Records
---
Amino acid sequence: MKYHIVTYGCQMNLHESEKIAGILHGKGYTEESDIDSADIIVFNTCCIRENAENHAFGNIGALKQRKRQNKDLIIAVGGCMAQEAGKAALIKEKFPFVDILFGTHNLDELGDLIDKKRAQRKRVFSLKEERGETEDGIVPVRTGFPGAWVNIMYGCNNFCSYCIVPYVRGRERSRRAEDIVREVGSLAAEGYKEITLLGQNVNSYRGEDGTTFPELLDRCARVEGDFRLRFMTSHPKDFTGELVEVIKRHKKICNQIHLPVQSGSDRILSLMNRRYTREKYLSEIRLLREEIPDCAVTTDIIVGFPTETEEEFCETLSLVKEAGFSSAFMFIYSPRTGTRAAAMEGQIPEEVAKDRLARLIEAVNEQTRAISASYVGKTAEILCEGFDEKKNLYLGRDEYGRMGYFESKTNRIGEYVMLKIDRANGISLYGTAVDA
Ligand code: SAH
Ligand code: SF4
Ligand code: F3S
């Protein structure tokens, strides 16, 4: 019996798909990369923006025919969309061939749901209200070697006015620091080289004994082994000098931080309920750069938030320059039913938002290109993480997150490789391994 998992959304979901794989392995299934040959197909969905949902709907819908031909095929839908108010009923109605529906709070029940489905042949829908547990006991089948993800917390309490996450992921729950440090230790011992601590807002982590995020990060960085440490996502409202100190103290912690700004306008930031100002954000970046001059800052930005004016958008453009982002994820605001912003007056027409997005992308790309160009002729240490079949080159990232490609006759995945950078193209660097 073979499984195929389709994942949408953030790192959190990618890691949860590794747990889904763990459950399926436990039931004797093996992985199948071809969706058409699988006996069970699991969709791990995302509902952060409308296009993420449309994507999933399209791909689930495409299986109607296959299910007709193969009655034994099991189709399961889980993740954030399944947990979203009203969506479960919609999936049930729209896709009568979906066999199993499970939410974000009962992932650990998937094995039982599969047994149930096989026994009764009826559809099984199981969605749970939030539960307090932070240990699911599932052993993930990790797919990101040499990288590994470690959850440090679940859920979110921030209720940014545009965001659906607090509704589908529940309230903040932190794992015990001891459990996290132990997991980091065993990953390091297993040879993982890049460990990323995950949470919707890692800065508000609170361990059982009051451990703060900087303290947790410090403990993780003291774990023995030759690995890099990253974390995401940091919320600017809880950013502290102590965090900067810890990053500075440890070589293991990459000099790169993902600090989503969302907007450069104070009025929009306030409407978004972000709880910081443009000036506070910029002062954090200044502090970071004073202490760690080479630190790369990446961000998330939303354009076209309700009532955003051209002038306010231009404040976002100017902030991009001032903050000196090395790259950014940029999105058109997407109204999410049930969130405060979706009910706001002054929704921005799509053409206006699209135009703003295009101008923002150009502004960010200009900086990205300039940073890439500054690498040419220098060396960069990358952690080789894969092979690009199309380019026929190995690839990996440096500590700042910049992607470097190189040729090699031997498999170097999982090794640190020194590259002399020969040329740059957009965000990508191309180099020659100098230690091979
Ligand atoms: N917890 C993280 C982000 C999670 S969602 C944080 O607070 O930074 C990832 C990104 O998606 C957000 O940073 C935001 O830029 C974007 N996003 C969230 N909701 C959105 C919406 N309704 N429309 C467009 N972009 C959205
Ligand atoms: Fe969403 Fe805000 Fe929570 Fe991030 S911090 S997940 S943007 S509500
Ligand atoms: Fe992640 Fe999407 Fe859910 S971004 S938390 S998978 S809504």
---
Amino acid sequence: MRMSDHAVKVEPDHTTASSGDKDNVVVTEELVLDTSPAASLSPPVPSCVPSAAGVQGSATPLASKDKARSRSKMGRDDRSTEGKVNTDIGYAISTHVGKHLNRLRGEKVLQIKCAGRVMQGKQETNGNSTHQRPRDRHEPGNKHQRKKKPVTVDTSKAKTSLEALKMSIKQLKWKEFPLGRRAACDIYWHGTSFHDNDHIVSGQVNKFPGMIEMLKKINLSRALRTMHELFPEEYNFYPRSWILPDEYQQFSAQIRGLKDSDAAAHRTFIVKPDSGSQGEGIYLIREASEVRLAAGSQARQAVVQEYVQRPLLIDKLKFDIRLYVLVKALEPLQIYIAKEGLTRFCTEPYQEPNQKNLSHVFMHLTNYSLNVQSDNFVHSDSQSTGSKRTFSSVLYRLASKGVDIKKVWSDVISLVIKTVIALVPELKVHYQADIPPGKPGPTCFQILGFDILLTKNLKPVLLEVNSNPSMRIEHEQEVAPGVFEYVSSPVDEDVKVCVIRDTLRLMDPGLNKHGHPPPAGGGGAAQQGTVITTKAGPPDKAPEEEPGDGLPTLCLKQVYPKYTKQFQYLCLVDRIATLFLRFLGIKGNMRLGPTAFRTFIRCCKLSNSNLPMASVDILYIDITRRWAASTQDSREAGMGLQAFVEAFFQLAGRRSKAALLRDQVASLLEVCEAHLDGPLSALPVAAAVSLEDRRSLSRGRAMAREASKLSPSSSSSSSTTHPPPLCSPAAPRRAVSHDQRLQRSRHGPLRTNLEN
Ligand code: ADP
């Protein structure tokens, strides 16, 4: 896929545009699409039903937190307009939101008209990478089926998603175990992390190990930066970011450089704490000196990022999009996108940043949790009004002004797929460490919350990905002066219940067990000894195209493997991760020891007169040390995947004369894969590594002694079958055990599913 630029003039319909939108209706858009996936993606397209006018925002000063409880009546008139938005590609949703008012919780029935075919539950054809035991499951839709055994769901750890989950289970007629169950359940719904319940040995859990860590701002930035190095054009949807405090000097130099080249340009940057959520700790700056760096060990890790100064506005207000994305399996990768999402609006009219407004939270940050505290916040009673609306209602609004919303949707889908592709390699390492192949364990799936901003030119920009997007369907409201109650939020309910219910439908073990044979190692880890090809899956018919159980057409649309062909070439890091996993060889470990690294070099025949083993050792030590210093979690010694990828890039650069990094890397991968496709590939990883280790044991020891002279601080491999550690003082810092690591991830700072 190549992206090409071509300008498209979007002609607005000024008759329907509110005056406040005038700045945003005439857009000359830099479209980036030709043979790209976008061309063939099938986004939902709103059609034809007039929508209500939106929020009429008025400026509000910052620091109105103390007025948080008072609610403006602004926009109430809009409530009478039902936000009927049809979305095509075989389905149409017409949600009569007015009926949501005053309905009792638990008695709600989603009113969804399906233009698509009725589901009749043929088995899923996409291949499911689960390895669960065969169960006595029904074939939905088969009239002669045996009596159904309901799917069992353990909801005891569901936390704030409980309400929506209960409704979903009820709609599916499945069986809920709110207090857990002694016998195994089919599905475990965790509110926070994979480790919410550590005693699961079968079934499916709605969280991947490592997802929380991977989606912290620094790790996400790193993963996307690596992909940007390889594919600068394809990965241009994430604002340029620097990691603080490590990259403060580079950031500072960059700002100076920009000023030197254009003194008039006033760029703004946004600083976000690494583990922050709900806008907490975020601030805008225009000078590097404004970064609030605490000293020494107090230095708070953060990301400083280019601020998108010209977002698309509706009714003069900045807004962002929350899209729900289901990662159904890692191997082969399966991604679904919810056809409906949410948009969250600021509550103070937007102005481009200037020295005076930099601290105006309600103008610059779209977080629900912040804006709900503004007097101008309007709880939405319909899908197309208020401070939280459906994405389709916004798309409809844009379409009415002539915006090519199919293009917007396809760019969004493309962004989502590329982001998941960037995350998958590291997730596979976590998965293999937590659920080693061959050991009993559950398989995993996860709903992610993508936060996306549209620029004035309609280009989607990724802000962040939430591992625990809020699934709350109620909000606190003042029902009488000083009296607060949780009341149902129709917009949240419409969107979130569908997402949960249809995620469950896709994870129905009755469907999945008849899917394609699971790869060893379950839903996530790369199968040992196998080079992953991302040419995923069977000639697929997405489940949403399958007939079903009389339930509405799925609100989740499969985008991968559906669009594998267009994106497969991006999976270079994934292939590097496969090599990495292969040489890890130690169950429960996530870092490569020096011996394993040398074994990798040897097996792939990368060492030669230009790259003697001594240089390999130095490369290992050099990179490992640097990463240990820059990552917070350096307790586990050795070379992590990101460091391995860096080493791989360096090795690729040494060997290849190709101009582009991606070509260098692709060529080195081919070399490695060709060598590993030999007899060694038949062996399981650990066996292969230890066989190789035994062969090179004596040589390795000698080299270890040599290398330990070079670096006293490097690490060791923790395998008992491995030669002694390369660098001796590492013994006390041996790779932490699996259990220790688990404990860390259990007790470490976790981001809970707070409303953003
Ligand atoms: P948090 O996890 O604390 O919500 P986010 O990364 O989502 O952090 O940022 C919070 C809000 O700040 C976003 O919802 C968005 O409105 C705004 N924001 C974040 N990054 C940018 C950016 N690069 N440019 C413009 N606005 C941004």
---
Amino acid sequence: MRIDIVTGFPGLLESPLGESMIARARTSGAVDIVVHDLRDYTRDRHRTIDDTPYGGGAGMILKPEPVFECVERLQAERTYDEIILTTPAGKVFNQELANGLSLKDNLLILCGHYKGVDERIRQALVTLEISIGDYVLTGGELAAAVITDAVVRLLPGVVGDGESLLTDSFQDGLLDCPYYTRPPEYRGMKVPEVLLSGDHRKIEAWRMAEAEKRTRERRPDLLAR
Ligand code: 6GU
């Protein structure tokens, strides 16, 4: 898979996508992530990417010219399955959306901006608008990093143990069960006996019951679906 990310603030994406499992996914060739600096597509001395809104009001709006020129340059090289805009007005991101995106070959993510982007960018270029939740961020860069992380970890070979993906919270519509590791007792707190029993049928039943209990207590909305 290839993911192109277009932003006025490339530095914001550097470390979220340059460490740990995502860094390994990039060096192993499971994913090619390329971050593009919108300012490289400006023509003025100040490398301006935003401007005040027509009609007045606070906040700056991402200008159309650098975005169109950058996206068109990229489209000349490949066909994108989706051109995603990160915006609080988008469809709320979830595991199902991540699963769907992980099956695509070429994604372009355009990072939204403080107040917004010129509407002509949405009209002419964007195929999918995504929000990562009901709260406001200063810009769409961290949202782009969240979406990229959730998608890339689903690609073959990125998470070492494929089994681990299937037991994730949300993957079966439930929160994940509690886990323990060594030691068997710590500060008087004991690991549940069943997990030390070696009886894998019993362990599986315990885990399923705990996942359901946790989901009922914390996220009854997930069970209702
Ligand atoms: Cl995608 N962008 C911004 N600016 N704020 C958000 C968001 C995106 N998702 C939730 N809040």
---
Amino acid sequence: MSALSEQQINEYHQHGYFFARQLFSAEEIRLLRETATSDHAMDQAASSRDDGTGTSVRLSLWNHPGEGIYGMFSRCHRVVDAVEELLQDEAYHYHSKMILKDAKVGGAWAWHQDYGYWYQNGLLFPDLCSVMIAVDEATEENGCLQILRGSHRMGRVNHILTGDQAGAEVERVEHAEKAFPLVHCKMAAGDAVFFHPNLLHASAANLSDNPRWALICCYNARSNNPYKESHHPAYTKLHKVDDAMVATVGRDDARRASVDFANLESNDRSATSLPDASET
Ligand code: SIN
Ligand code: MN
């Protein structure tokens, strides 16, 4: 059985993204939020980077999904079967990250393509997919994801540094903004957006009273195995789990927070040509 409707697959190829509303239940998201917000290791691992306007973005990242609730989100059939249908290949976990966009202080993300960064990691093709899952409701006020619909058709554009972040070339973004409709990805907690690695996306700072945390799970196609080493893994078999494991592990206090966070401050950036960039 297909994990996706024909319409979702067409939207992905035509527009570079589609929404999967209520992909996760209120209970699953509650367990994820509760785990993540009380996870001392996640807080400790979070790296903070100047967004170039005075506020900072904070994120925690891990390369291997692990056996905790974060791993269950990124390994469950609901997500991985859909990604494999989009990639038309076996998918493996490239990394996941929690974007900790806190109330009042959460910083902005500059316009970028994920493949604008990942290209540096020895990936020949943009055969990757990101799945952003809303942990909190995302609105214009708290800095929801913004995308330029259809911009993945531009192919990869060059990225340069602004503050600590690498963003797509400003001149090209200005023209892209005229060529493609801007969409604010308003999401309820539990909604997901699947998006193409060449889709231009950004988000504004969170000046509201509400947090906007989001889990982003990123996958690479097995046939797109990187030709050189980087700070993200080469093909590693992804062991899928039943959808019910999300809640089962989420209720298991001893297990739910287990994952190995990457140390973003000491990443070996020699593998990238943007040595100081927020290259996630
Ligand atoms: C990202 O592109 O990795 C983060 C975007 C966001 O959280 O708004
Ligand atoms: Mn991104």
